[in-house]
Specification:
The protein has about 120 residues and is mostly helical. The chain has 7 helices and no strands. α1 crosses α7.
Length: about 120
């Protein structure tokens, strides 16, 4: 059980020192496929397209409570593993992209090195 506590402690320290946020920003800043823009912008564009389609299908969404509308949109986006973001000519295979990015040996080694450094600080 102490190993689990140590792992959680390292993960918390990794986040606290901002490594998680830096990693997230670096991944979102990468170009996706043939696009000339970062994947973050591609995701935003696809979300905007999905929202426009939803409003076109049901104009009452504009007049509903903001919270319930947000929940409905979020449910559509997350449904079936981001399927809505994968549709169309500018679709993004988000899960596939994240899996391949996070399996990059260089990235994995960088994360390990940071965790080892944090672990050595603890000693």
């Amino acid at each position: 059980m102490p190993e689990v506590d140590q792992a959680r402690k390292l993960a918390d320290e990794f986040k606290r020192e901002g490594h998680f946020d830096k990693l997230k920003r670096a991944i979102l800043a990468q170009k996706y496929g043939d696009a000339n823009e970062p994947i973050e912008q591609s995701i935003k564009n696809n979300v905007a397209t999905v929202v426009r389609q939803m409003v076109a299908e049901d104009e009452n969404l504009i007049f509903r409570n903001r919270g319930s509308t947000s929940a409905l949109i979020e449910a559509q986006l997350f449904k079936q593993g981001y399927q809505k973001l994968e549709e169309g000519e500018s679709g993004i295979q988000l899960e596939e992209y994240l899996h391949s990015t996070l399996k990059d040996p260089q990235l994995v080694q960088e994360i390990r090195n940071k965790l080892l450094t944090l672990d050595q600080k603890e000693d």
